[in-house]
Structure to design on (348 residues):
């Protein structure tokens, strides 16, 4: 069995979730069983990735476990609970033997807010079945997560069309 | 109709082709018609993206148009011909009205070798149907291509498992 890798896509540029999605598609192409867990995105927006996942069918599962983006501290408890549920789901899935690749999308946010600790993440990584690949995404990954990962890419924003007043485009950004 | 965007994923890190693949999947999820053109990769390796494309079926087309990676100048003519054929195919596809998103994967290599000029690229971008999104990928994009793009992300390698002696993993990197 291949050694499972830990990949991390971080930085402020476009393409973190998207690169995770591309890796997931590639793995699915090879017949691997993929679970894509969205830690921040909630179910309100029918994104391209959700639509795609439903069309891909068996072998590609996407779950939106977040409570939407965090706007104010007044909602912290709601987000903490969603993050903890998502984390328990992630650990259970990683250890279940049902998946070859588990993506923890926008995971760095739950670390930043202290909803999950780096010690918990380290425990999950080290105790997982040997063949399971993991991908973490999100801005501002802490050094400890960089240290735990085998491969780390920083997506650096060189230029963004937002700054030209062009809004998010369906099919490209969501 | 949405204004077509020009996205560029460049830099030396992992995730350029992969982010293009993820964007393509997202677009396909929304029912957009996607063409993914591989300028360097040839048909010898059955990659995860090729397997996935064949399973996705209608609306997602992947073509491997390259002659494989360039190792020596003695093969330059073969690569030049492959690159020119790929370029003609790209222009034809972009203008055909058959695709909402066209990916020119690893395109910077054909610019670097002078097989296609930046003036040709500029002409294609400016004369394309208004709604067509384009994605270019590849290391070392020239400044002129950065200038032509709406959104540019540099994938910066922070850490890579190659350096730990772990070889490329099926389903993750190809």
């Amino acid at each position: 069995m291949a050694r499972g890798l830990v990949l991390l896509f971080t930085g402020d540029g476009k393409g973190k979730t998207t690169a995770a999605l591309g890796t997931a598609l590639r793995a699915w192409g090879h017949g691997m069983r993929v679970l894509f867990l969205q830690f921040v995105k909630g179910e309100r927006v029918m994104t391209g990735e959700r639509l795609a996942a439903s069309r891909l069918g068996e072998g590609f599962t996407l779950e939106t476990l977040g409570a939407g983006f965090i706007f104010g501290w007044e909602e912290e408890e709601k987000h903490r609970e969603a993050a903890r549920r998502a984390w328990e789901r992630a650990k259970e899935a990683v250890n279940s033997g049902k998946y070859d690749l588990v993506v923890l999308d926008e995971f760095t946010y739950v670390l930043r807010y202290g909803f999950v600790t780096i010690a918990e993440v380290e425990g999950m990584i080290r105790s997982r079945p040997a063949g399971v690949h993991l991908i973490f995404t999100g801005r501002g990954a802490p050094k400890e997560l960089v240290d735990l990962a085998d491969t780390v890419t920083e997506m650096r924003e060189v230029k963004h069309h937002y700054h030209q007043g062009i809004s998010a485009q369906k099919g490209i950004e969501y």
Summary: The radius of gyration of chain B is 16 Å.
